Amino acid sequence: MSKESMTPRERWTAVLMKKKPDRVPLFWSSTQETLQNIKKYLNVSETQELFKKLHIDEVVSVFPEYIGPKCPEDKDFFGCGFKKVSYGYGVYSECVYHPLAQYETLEQIKKNYKFPSIDWFDFSTIKKQIQGREHLPVYGGGMEPFLRYTQLRGLERAMLDLIEKPDIVDYCLEQIFQLYYRITMGIFDEIGNKVLLTMVAEDLGSQETLLFSPDTIRKFLLPRMKKMMGLAHENGSWVITHSDGAIRDIIPDLIDCGMDVLNPVQWRCKGMDRKLLKQDFGNKICFHGAMDNQYTMPFGTVDQVKQEVIDNIRILGENGGYFLGPCHNLQSITPPENIVAMYETAYENGWY
User: Fold this and answer.
1) With pLDDT > 70 as the criterion, what percentage of the chain qualifies?
2) How far apart are CA 191 and CA 186, in angstroms?
3) Which of 27, 118, 200, 221 has CA 20 to 30 A from 7's CA?
4) pLDDT-derived band of residue 1, with 50, 70 and 90 as boundaries?
């Protein structure tokens, strides 16, 4: 007989409110290949059946329907072109065409490129997307503007722009921000406080240090992140921030902006010791992830996976404040035995 006394939404809400849930919430994040592999391994056909078997709290994500100008098959509504690229163990959609790459001045961009309009989105389907699923956590709205900027300009050009062409960076980031701010407002207008979490993301870290100087982050990225976080809080939503890598030095700034949950907690990166993160920030934010996806999950033994689960619950889950799952998408090279071990061990050991 199940010991669960909370719905997934109630469980997640308790953690966000710094209260103890019945157990540590579990979430899923993987590539499509991994999802199919684990379904085959467990002999299940439906994703919801898989989640039930592994005690995973299903999450609902909402987004308006695109009704703007027809996009070419290989391009999105920003005009960025994508191509499926196989790396042997998985196929990924990579951005290969950058519509703003050829422009050297801001004037050229203003003259030749049209940013997407809020009128290209229909919000009338949002209510239907959560119908009958009100007992689940709902993700809605948010942004990751510099990622979009790298797709518009190309990664190398985008990084150089921060130094060489800050006027282009500032203008484009503001256009991207305004679109996603209005999209987020539209979602809140439709379903209000039914949105539990809003993702305000930006990858700020490498394996060893920040990808940008703190001054660059504070100049170009944090002000807009703070505005989006403020919008989420005004509408009763908590803010989850995805930022890979060694970001210890900028965590206080993210908290000041309004971050409530840090994902993915790559604790093998420099400065990301779990005990110190919990000690220094555990009274202000929750932690989401922390199951190492660079070594433990793909290459570790079942026993190593089990031990990491127990350690994460003991350290990050002390007195609540923790959602357990992988640090980024589980890759197709991950043994299914390790995936099952992660969730079963978390379910067995995650009760409060």
Assistant:
1) 99
2) 9
3) 200
4) very low
pLDDT tens sequence across 276-325: 999 999 999 999 999 999 999 999 999 999 999 999 999 999 999 999 99
| 265, 272 contact by CB (below 8 A) | yes
Domain boundaries, position 49: 1-59+237-352
Residue whose pair of structure tokens reads 């840090």 in the numeric block: 262
d(CA 293, CA 244) in angstroms, rounded, equals 12
DSSP string covering 63-129, please? -PEE-SSPPPTTB-TT--EEEEEE-SS-EEEEEEE-TTTT--SHHHHHHH-----GGGEE-TTHHHH
- Structurally, how many domains does the chain consist of? 1
Q: Name 299's Cβ contacts closer than 8 Å, sequence gap at least 6.
A: none
Nearest Cα residue to 180 out of 130, 232, 134: 232
Residues 6+ apart with CB under 8 A from 297: 291, 305, 326, 330, 334, 338, 339, 342
User: Residue 184's closest CA among 225, 153, 213?
Assistant: 225
d(CA 225, CA 259): 9
Of 177, 254, 242, the C-alpha closest to 217 is 254
In a domain, 288, yes or no: yes
Q: Could you give phi then psi for residue 244, rounded to 5 degrees?
A: -70, 165
Whether residue 135 is contained in a domain is answered as no
Domain presence at residue 35: yes
Q: Is residue 254 part of a domain?
A: yes
